[in-house]
Write a structure and sequence with these properties.
By secondary structure, the chain is of the alpha+beta class. Helix content is 45%, strand content 14%. Helix 8 crosses helix 12. It is elongated, with a radius of gyration of 32 Å.
């Protein structure tokens, strides 16, 4: 039977507990000298417990070392003496290592920290950061060119700082998060008025646009499809027929398509790589973004056309050079050219996803189905973004009222005996 050999750490000393001649022997180094000898305890489980809990602690104490609890307390106190820079480095490293954040988001967060937080608080010890200093810092947040920052940018910078301090609190480096006592910058909706040509007489009307949700009309889509060809035509049609994110589409493989079941497996997205010309696929945006979506006729039509172009390749959409896309940026560039050629008001490629959602919702498609297809966590997110596109004509509204009336309680059927006295 093989003899047991157990590695056991007590404080900063590593002990090797070995079974020899029916007894437990110890082997360790102290001041670069090796120390070996028998504990005289029999090599039983009970003897092992005595070695670990009595003999080894006595040896450490005899060597002039403090107890483990004292050492741990000292280490914790050392940790509490960390500066914000020291802890932030640890924080960002853990988030990236544990895949808590995507690489490009990580770089943005680190940039926010380096540009706006570290110059003011980096040398502060964690416990020195107070509410007063934080209020002054937030009120004076400005760009590197000393220009006023947008409220959304301020919120993002604050969010980075808040995350760092929350983790410091969790790790007991600080007792409370002082930034929670500082009011967040006020939110403002990015609503702007834009003029849009609506007929041949060059008449104009004002279009209220909330944020970047600015879907295309059917007329605009027809012009866009008419003025596109090749994989771009198929990509545009497929995106507007599925509502998928552009990064999800460029990472889509033929193995993800089930024409028999009319189903599409969405399980990855294309990530930006630090290494030029490196194809890097990663996990989709959130857990709810892992999904199977229904293949509508318009999406199937686009895929069948694309199949003639790339059936022999792994990825569905590839570049003119017969290689997978590194990102969807070049598709966005081609898309802007198509919009210009079509005489359609310029907006980002992502609005094809918004177009799918708004078209479905405005036509009364089940909101739960739309939410699931988009990969939202729940329908409330979908409604928050697209509620303004829910429209209902009078005929449909009156019909719904009539249906609801049928289900209402009939007051004439309620006996007088059951009424309130």
């Amino acid at each position: 039977m093989a003899k047991k050999s157990i590695k056991y750490f007590y404080g900063d000393i590593k002990f090797t507990i070995r079974e020899q001649d029916g007894h437990w022997h110890l082997d360790y180094y102290y001041k670069k000298k090796r120390v070996r000898g028998s504990t005289k305890e029999k090599s039983t489980q009970n003897g092992l417990e005595i070695v670990k809990k009595q003999i080894i602690p006595d040896i450490v104490f005899g060597l002039g070392k403090s107890s483990v609890s004292d050492q741990l307390e000292k280490k914790m106190n050392d940790k509490k003496e960390q500066t914000l820079d020291e802890f932030a480095s640890e924080y960002f490293g853990l988030r990236l290592r544990d895949n808590k954040v995507r690489e490009h988001v990580h770089h943005k967060e680190v940039a926010h920290y380096n540009n706006h937080i570290a110059p003011v608080f980096g040398y502060f010890k964690l416990y020195e950061i107070g509410v007063e200093e934080l209020e002054k810092w937030q009120a004076n947040l400005r760009s590197l060119k000393n220009k006023e920052l947008k409220p959304l940018t301020k919120q993002r910078i604050r969010s980075v700082f808040l995350g760092i301090l929350e983790k410091a609190k969790k790790y007991k480096r600080i007792s409370e998060n002082p930034l929670l006592d500082v009011d967040a910058p006020k939110k403002t909706k990015a609503i702007e008025l834009q003029s849009d040509k609506i007929d041949k007489k060059d008449k104009k009307k004002k279009v209220i646009r909330d944020g970047n949700v600015y879907p295309f009309t059917e007329t605009e889509l027809a012009l866009i499809i008419k003025n596109s060809d090749g994989y771009m035509k198929n990509f545009i049609q497929f995106m507007v027929a599925t509502g998928m994110r552009p990064g999800e589409i460029v990472a889509l493989k033929w193995s993800d398509i089930d024409f028999d079941r009319k189903e599409i497996d969405v399980s990855r997205t294309r990530l930006r790589s630090k290494i030029p010309k490196e194809i890097k696929d990663g996990e989709v945006k959130t857990d709810s973004s892992y999904r199977y979506i229904d293949m509508l006729a318009l999406a199937e039509e686009a895929l069948l056309r694309q199949k003639k172009l790339t059936e022999q390749y792994e990825y569905i959409f590839i570049s003119y050079f017969k290689r997978p896309f590194y990102t969807h940026d070049i598709i966005g560039v081609h898309f802007h050219k198509i919009l210009k050629k079509s005489g359609v008001k310029d907006r980002p490629l992502y609005n094809l996803r918004h177009t799918f959602a708004s078209q479905m919702i405005s036509r009364g498609v089940d909101i739960l189905w739309v939410s699931k297809t988009l990969g939202h966590k729940d329908a409330s997110i979908t409604l928050k973004i697209y509620a303004k596109f829910i429209k209902e004509d009078d005929d449909k509204r009156l019909k719904n009222i009539a249906e609801i009336d049928k289900k209402m309680v009939k007051l004439e059927n309620i006996s007088d005996d059951n009424s309130d006295k």
